[in-house]
Amino acid sequence: MNILEMNHINKKFDKLEVIKDISLSVSEGEILSIIGPSGSGKSTILRCATMLETINGGEIKYLDKQAVRTDDNGNVVYAKGDKMKNIKSNFGLVFQNFNLFPHYSVLKNIMDAPLTVQKRDKKEVYETAKDLLEKMGLSDKADYYPCQLSGGQQQRVSIARALAMKPKILFFDEPTSALDPELTLEILKVIRGLAEEHMTMVIVTHEMNFAREVSSRIIFMEKGVIVEETTPEKMFNSDNQRTREFLGRYSQL
User: Fold this and answer.
1) How far is CA 243 from CA 49, 219, 230, in A?
2) Per-residue pLDDT for 44 more than 60?
3) What is the pLDDT of residues 165-210, one digit of tens each?
4) 72 lies in a domain?
5) DSSP characters over 59-70
6) CA within 20 to 30 Å of 223's CA: 17, 36, 62, 109, which one?
7) Pairing mode, if any, of strands 57-62 and 65-70?
8) How do residues 206-232 score in pLDDT, each as one tens digit?
9) Cα–Cα distance between 71 and 200 in angstroms, integer?
C-alpha cells in the first residue's frame, strides 16, 4: 500500500509557479531521495506534502485518506479537525535547521508533541523518549538544552523527536546542510540505521553518494518538474543529458 500519494500538485508563490503538475507516491518501507539544483522545488514539494505550504491544485493522500483535494470548481479543499489531525499523525519532518524549542530540555523537546498532540500516556512517552535518546547516542544529554549541544547532536534530537510520534513515514529536508562534514557523517549514519530498520523515508538531499547508497528510488527535479525518476543504479548511469550534467558537477566536487 502507498503511504503517500501526491497527484498533479501545483504550487505558486504569487505568480511564480514552483511546482508544476508533479505526481509521486511512496510505499511502505521505501526510501525515496529527491535531488536537484537549488530552486528546483525539492523542499517545496516536502512542505506541500506535510501541509506547511498550501497547494494551488492537486490531491494528497496518506494511507488512502484524502488530506487535500481539488473540487470540480478548481478550489483546493483541505481535510479539517480530527480528520486532518489523524492524517498528520502519519508523518514526521526533520528540518535542516533543527527547529528545536530552545527553552525546553532535550527530553521535553522529544516528549512534548506525543503528550500534547497525541495525548499518549506520560510513562509510555517517557520510556519511548529514553529509548530514542539511547538509540541516538544521547542518553547523557536528556537534561541539556539545545544551545548546549553541537549541531549534529541537535539534529539527532530532532530525529528522535520526529520518531517519538511513531510516524509511518519520515521526511528529511536537507538534514545535513547546516552541518560540517564530520557532523554530516554522524547524521547520515543515523539515517542509514533507520533505512536498515525499513523506515519509510523521503529525503531531500545534496549528498549524492548517500542517496545512491540508501535509496530505493531517486527523483531528479529541476524548475518545478520531475526530470527523471528511477533506481539509483539507473539514475547514476542515466542517458538523460540534464541528469548527467547535474550528477557530473557533483562528481567533480
Assistant:
1) 24, 10, 11
2) yes
3) 999 999 999 988 888 888 888 899 999 999 999 999 999 999 999 9
4) no
5) EEEETTEEEEEE
6) 62
7) antiparallel
8) 999 999 999 999 999 999 999 999 999
9) 30
Is residue 226 in a domain?
A: no
Quick check: is 147 in a domain? Answer: yes
- Count of domains for the chain: 1
Domain containing 129 equals 100-165
- With pLDDT > 90 as the criterion, what percentage of the chain qualifies? 89
- The pTM of this model reads 0.93
CA-based nearest residue to 47, from 246, 251, 244, 202: 202
Domain presence at residue 120: yes
CB-based burial, 53-72: b 16+ in 10 Å, e otherwise: bebbbbbbbbeeeebbebee
Q: Look at the block and give the residue holding cell 542517458.
A: 239
Q: How confident is the model at residue 251 (pLDDT cuts 50, 70, 90)?
A: low
Q: Is 91 helix (H, G, I), strand (E, B) or coil?
A: strand
By DSSP bridging, strand 16-27 and strand 57-62 are: unpaired
Please state, in angstroms and rounded to a whole number, the distance separating the CA atoms of residues 4 and 57: 17
Residue of higher predicted confidence among 250 and 60: 60
Distance CA(137)–CA(131), nearest Å, equals 10
pLDDT computed for residue 172 by the predictor: 95
Q: With contact defined as beta carbons under 8 Å apart, do 214 and 192 qualify? A: yes
Q: Check: CB of residue 48 under 8 Å from CB of residue 9.
A: yes
Name the helix (H) or strand (E) containing 127.
helix 122-135
* DSSP letters spanning 190-230: HHHHHHHTT-EEEEE-S-HHHHHHH-SEEEEEETTEEEEEE
AA letter at 117: V
**Pair 77, 69: CB distance under 8 Å:** yes
